[in-house]
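Protein data sheet
==================
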Amino acid sequence: MRKSAAAAAAVVAAGAAFAAAALWYRRSSRRWRRAELIMRELKEPCETSVERLWAVADAMADEMRAGIASEGRTSLRMIADPSISLPTGCEEGLFYGLQFGPASVRMIRLLLGGNDARVVEKEISEVPVPPKLMVGTSEELYNFIAAELVKFISTGNANMGPHDGMPGEIGVTFSFPVVQDLESDYFSVEWTIGFSIKEMEGRDAVAAMNKALEKHGVEMRISLLANDTVGILAGGRYCCKETVAAVMLGMKTNAAYTEPFNGENPHNKHRDTIINMELGNFKSPNLPITEFDTDLDAASANPGEQIFAKLVCGVYLGDIVRRVLLKMAEETALFGDTIPSKLRIPFVLKIPDMAAMHQDMSEDLMVVGEKLDQILGIPNTTLRMRKLVFEVCEIVTRRGAYLAAAGILGILKKIGKDSADEKVAVAVEGNIYEHYRLFREYLHNGVEVMLRERVATNVVIQHFNDVSRIGAALLSASNSHNELGYSYADAVKRRVPSETFNAGITN
């Protein structure tokens, strides 16, 4: 009797266990089917066929033409810098530059030796921008810059020649839109990226900066003001005479290029003109946009703006991945019955961590597992889960890189260099391009796929060492109004050129 009862109990227990296992299996299968459906909802709209990429490039070229014709009444600002000349490599003498970014001020001193020696010496000093100045007045900010310049000038390397009391000029680049009024020749800065500077109405930014320099006893004057992407273009042209455009691919995206002298260019009827596109704001129905991009845009501080940037910039790519994983957690319980709280934090997944997951070469994707645990609070993941996250990173990155490639070719098409037989170069800067290997490889692959092998060999996408750091000083050199020149040719001939920078020069 007891044996029969025990046997019956065992059968019941086994049946319950089997039923539980079957229930778990059905639930797990439903979760994975739903997760795979979400993957399709991401993957299909992100499709970047050659036809679609050329549709994006064509749309960008059209927007560029419209922007030039309407002076900014399109998604692309197309801000002209008609008074700026790019360096030729012949520049000689001592020049200063200042690069103002969202987080720091970088001051540069260059000793240039002309065609034979190029960059002979360079000194760079970087100081953080105090947070309180991000919401202050332009006078407070410019006084801070002038005070730092005093320190930098007074501590110059004696080998680079005299500094004390030497009048000269400084080229300045900003990581913000810089607009020149062609009638008054005034320059104004449009403060973005977390800055809310109270600028005096109608005040020329160059005059205001020069006043601050004079107040602090700096015997130098601002010779020009430009966007930092124009500085990259200057550095690219200095390194390679075939450089026709520059693209920033980092926490922001932008592009500058040389608009050929022709009938389409109303800004300058005598020579090529530099155009700062404000590329990040490009928008087109041809862009491959998903529900996750739409949600990110709606929740941003600037909905409806910077659409292209939100598809390719490092600051956004990680958050697109996070949003995909959050939807999976909410609708499939793939990462457990409780949604990890960190998955709800916007921008918690930074681009270096996303890149580390995407570039995980280990067989069991252990780096992916570690990042999910440490960054997103998702522990004890299975290999299948890690492969799914890897694929999400792959889709988002490939789309972003291919769109960046389409943007570059849109620029080249506008200026008639997309099918040219001669070599053309595009200088590319930014941490996502420089440090995210797979993004960089996909970008190059996108250019090759779009242009086909014959033409692609003539288009060089290249990162030049240091150009973003010294572009402001190179612009100062190529636009110097100083008739004395302050040539240090004799000193130049006695020095060995700076190998770090000059290694990238192909003139």
Remarks:
- The first helix runs from residue 2 to 43.
